[in-house]
Amino acid sequence: MQKNIPNILTSLRIILIPILVSAFYIDSKVAHYIAAAIFIFASITDYFDGFLARTWGVQSNFGKVLDPIADKLLVAATLMMMVDRSIAPVLPTLVILCREILVSGMREYLAELKVSLPVSHLAKIKTAAQMIAIIILLLGEEATGIPYTNLIGKISIWIAAILTVITGYEYLRQGIKNFH
Asked: What residues does each domain of the chain span?
């Protein structure tokens, strides 16, 4: 059972996406809190699935494939619904989504060549910045009652987008050395 916990956490993250989306589209403060809580919980599972798999030595091909997909689905779905409601700005959202697609495609190509493209420290900071920005935007001033929450969230998503460009460029620079 222990060896399945990381994969269960990864699968749970995907299962939570439609629940998050449903909660988001309910028009109430409580729904904002529920959507933010689901996103926070799902983000925490992202950390623990990898941590537990490494700690317990139960890394699997299933987890290696599904974990990044689950991460991207969670972030993409959340960003897209926030753009739909004009909560998140379009341009940084597009930058984030395009980078994720570019890096995923490049990693897939490089994997066929047996070339690893390890996650950089800055990319981990980028992911944390994205998660924080999304949480701030999910809650917003309406739910928190804190002035400038929406502005802080929009600035945060721009910061995440800038980090996204920097890390995307670094991955592209490293990966392109292996293109034939």
From this structure: 2-176
> Does the structural domain 2-176 have CATH classification 3.40.50.960?
no
d(C-alpha 12, C-alpha 5), whole Å: 10
End-to-end CA, the chain: 43
pTM over 0.85: yes
Give the contacts of 90 (CB within 8 A, at least 6 positions apart). 83
Residue 169 to residue 180: CA distance in whole angstroms: 19
- Long-range contacts formed by 27-31: CB under 8 A, 24+ apart: 29/142, 29/143
pLDDT digits (tens, 9 = 90+) for 109-158: 888 888 888 888 999 899 999 999 999 999 999 888 899 999 999 999 99
